[in-house]
Amino acid sequence: MPLLVMKFGGTSVATLDRIRRAAKRVGREVANGYDVIVIVSAMSGKTNELVGWVEETSKLYDAREYDAVVSSGEQVTAGLMALTLQEMDVPARSWQGWQVPLKTTSAHSQARIEEIPTDNINARFAQGMKVAVVAGFQGVSPEGRITTLGRGGSDTTAVAFAAAFGAERCDIYTDVDGVYTTDPRITSKARKLDKIAFEEMLELASLGAKVLQTRSVELAMRYNVKLRVLSSFEDNNESAGTLVCAEEDIMESNVVAGVAFSRDEAKMTLLSVADRPGIAAAIFGPLSEAGVNVDMIVQNISEEGRTDMTFSLPVNQVARARAAMEKVKASDEVNYSELVTDEDVAKVSVVGIGMRSHAGVAAQMFKALRDEGINIKVITTSEIKISVLIDRKYMELAVQALHDTFGLDRAA
Ligand code: ASP
Ligand code: MG
Predict the structure, then answer these.
(1) Residue 101, preceding bond cis, omega within 30 degrees?
(2) What does pLDDT average to over the chain?
(3) For a Cys-Cys bond, which of 39, 257, 274, 333 suits 158, CB 3.0-4.6 Å?
(4) Are 135 and 94 in contact (CB under 8 A)?
(5) Computed from CA positions of residues 398, 191, 359, 381, in that sequence, does the dihedral angle turn out positive or negative?
């Protein structure tokens, strides 16, 4: 039997009525001749509520008990989905992570999947079961404790199952009808993409387009799992949604696939640090130990053996970063003259695999920003991405200008 993985996010299982609608979709695929593995999230808002309860109960909570609590939302929806399917005469049963068992590391609340044995579920398919409903987001550690995969982890559960069972496709049902060239709330010209390459999706996902958990895209790329993102609120035909796939499966695409942004960024500069071997390690080592996610880094040319070091970070990590830098200064490891912080910046990026073979994308980007009078504070580039840090108040304008200049409202 051909097999499909269908994943339903929190909004798609938010009420019993929506669970019924989702189950109908599953029933249709069964009627089309598929065996189906359904991965469910918790009802929308549930995981946040559970996390809140844990935090209210215990400030320095035991992460093993955090996982015991927050994984429970998926247990409920898995059971309800199986019951709903049974009511529709579709042979189905539910599995908790530990029952599969979906084996993970013991990094509680951020566990990684190690192995998914298929024999147990396949034996049931062989006996005539049509749908295996699996609770997303959770697994079991080598110690036998319940683990969770990090927020948004059900996407990763879904892709991992698709890879392990050799599914024809992994359909991710969500509350948007696909992946867009940029956030439609920022420009009405944003266009749904029919296809996007794994690498582009990875850049867009990690840049804050919150459609898929980044790790699910990494996993899909590694195992070449065809991923489709589509809405559970619309009637979908064969070509609905966005297919996230290998570059080779995309015939034509724009040089730039999308414009991503991250609103809440900050920039810190250490003025006049000694330009000597080991200085970067002395700065960024302690930042990393303090749990600061440094993104862009620029070191100025040095004059008389001193230089300035600038880096960007999420704005809510500024206090932590400042404390770490004051500590290295006090201990004389890094002797800067001043620490300058700018908490009003945003990052805007253009992403596209077409940049590999097209020159001039950066120049076109900078020109578009210049034409709007937007000053660029930091620039970084990779093979398929160019990012700039700008004043936050110009973020929307920059996204709109870049969307226009690269003609993203039109398909290639
Ligand atoms: N329910 C979990 C969360 O909200 C996992 C998921 O839905 O992907 O993060
Ligand atoms: Mg999600």
Answers:
(1) yes
(2) 95
(3) 39
(4) yes
(5) positive
Cα of 321 vs centre of ligand 2, distance in Å, is 29
Question: CB–CB of 179/192 below 8 Å?
Answer: yes
Domain range summary for the chain, segments of one domain joined by +: 3-175, 259-405
- Rounded to an integer, the average pLDDT of 222-234 is 92
Residues with CB under 6 A from ligand 1: 9-10, 41-42, 47, 73, 136-137, 151-155
pLDDT of residue 250: 87
**Among candidates 302, 191, 186, 231, which has minimal Cα distance to 22?**
231
Contact 90, 27 (CB under 8 A): yes
| Cα angle, residue 337 at apex, residues 335 and 340 outer, rounded to 5° | 115
Contact predicate 75/14, CB 8 Å: no
Ligand 2 center–CA 307 separation, angstroms: 43
Q: Provide the token pair at 158.
A: 């879904």
State pTM to two decimals: 0.87
Residue 94's pLDDT band (cuts 50, 70, 90): very high
Q: How many whole angstroms separate alpha carbon 61 and alpha carbon 5?
A: 34
For residues 233-252, average pLDDT:
85
| CATH fold label, 3-175 | Carbamate kinase (3.40.1160)
- b or e along 347-379 (b: 16 or more beta carbons within 10 Å of the residue's beta carbon)? bbbbbbbbbeeeeebeebbeebbeeeebeebbe
Q: Is 310 in contact with 298 (CB distance < 8 Å)?
A: yes
Per DSSP, the three-state class of 85 is helix
The CATH architecture of the domain made up of 259-405 is 2-Layer Sandwich (3.30)
C-beta atoms surrounding 67 within 10 Å: 26
